[in-house]
Amino acid sequence: MVENAYVLITTEIDRQEEVLQALQDNGSVKEAYAVSGAYNIIAILEAESMVELKNTVSTDIRGLPGVRSTLTMVVTS
């Protein structure tokens, strides 16, 4: 079963474009956009399992230089 999630990302002010490019290069990230408001980037993820989804968020995204915080919303239907 394919798992999907939306991840809202807050970045350091001068690292938004760098983080956005890294997300767009990640195979689990289907789409990523710079946005205005409380968050800097929204990423749409797709993974083969919940474990893969968790690893993408906790390691691949949160581990990027310039990422300050994330808020993950897993799609349930």
In short:
The chain has 77 residues and is of the alpha+beta class. Helix content is 27%, strand content 39%.
What is the CATH homologous superfamily assignment?
Answer: Lrp/AsnC effector binding domain/regulation of amino acid metabolism (RAM) domain
CATH class: Alpha Beta
The radius of gyration over CA amounts to 11 Å
Unreliable runs: none
Calculate the mean pLDDT score and round it. Answer: 96
In terms of DSSP E residues, the strand content is 35-45%
The biggest sheet, with number of strands, parallel, antiparallel or mixed sense and barrel status, is: 4 strands, antiparallel
The largest beta-sheet arranges its strands as 2-3-1-4
Global morphology: globular
How many domains is the backbone divided into?
A: 1
Distinct helical segment count: 2
What would the keywords be for this entry?
77 residues, alpha+beta, Alpha-Beta Plaits, four-stranded antiparallel β-sheet, 2 helices, 39% strand, globular
Describe this structure as you would to a colleague.
This protein has a four-stranded antiparallel beta sheet. It has 77 residues and is an alpha+beta fold. The two termini are 12 Å apart.
Question: How would you summarize the topology of this molecule?
Answer:
Blueprint: E1 3-11, H1 16-24, E2 29-34, E3 41-47, H2 50-61, E4 67-74
Antiparallel strand pairs: 1-3, 1-4, 2-3
